[in-house]
Amino acid sequence: MDTGDRLLTPGEVAALFRVDPKTVTRWAAAGRIGSIRTPGGHRRFRESEVRALLEGEGMLDEAEEMGKPRNVGPAASTGPGPANAGMY
Amino acid sequence: MDTGDRLLTPGEVAALFRVDPKTVTRWAAAGRIGSIRTPGGHRRFRESEVRALLEGEGMLDEAEEMGKPRNVGPAASTGPGPANAGMY
DNA sequence: TTATACTTGGGTAATTCGGGTC
DNA sequence: CATGTCCGAATTACCCAAGTAT
């Protein structure tokens, strides 16, 4: 089925996180947050995913996370939390 | 397999992409998305094509989810070569 | 036939993009 | 290393009126 969640614009996500839209764009470019691109090139973000990030997604042990742009491994680590888009 | 051949109206596609119906019409006019024209001049879009675009089938780099199961779908889809000449 | 909802077209703001810099 | 701001350019959003679709 469809993901069923609405899509948010960079400005919306930026307002939710209290950051600049440009910062949100960088998160998407770094792969830290999933992004859907419109045929025109603009990005759209999943409401559920943004929400999970805002909630803190149950990450209690926030370990320090820094250098990560180099995704060498298959997947696995990197993530303070499952930044995956939860589909419910 | 005709399940994915349903035709969607500009309003439907616009709602899926979280954009204005006018923008969808512009995509069709620019050749970024296939469109069928009704005798009256209105446009209709193929559900399969829109779905593929939403999934981000054209994504290669960013938004690399790590904890995402590599779902190897058997159906490669369709492809009539959607004349996608879009790039930014 | 009438009626309502939607789509079309052009034009003008607002937003976003990408890169570069601090 | 991450974030905020600058610029130019592209894309998108909302305004109008008229026609089509159901």
UniProtKB/TrEMBL annotation, chains A, B:
Gene3D superfamilies: 1.10.1660.10. Residues 65-88 are annotated as: Disordered. Pfam families: HTH_17 (PF12728). Residues 7-56 form the Helix-turn-helix domain. One of its GO terms (molecular function) is DNA binding. It comes from the Bacteria. Transmembrane segments: none annotated. This is DNA binding domain-containing protein, excisionase family. It comes from Micromonospora coxensis.
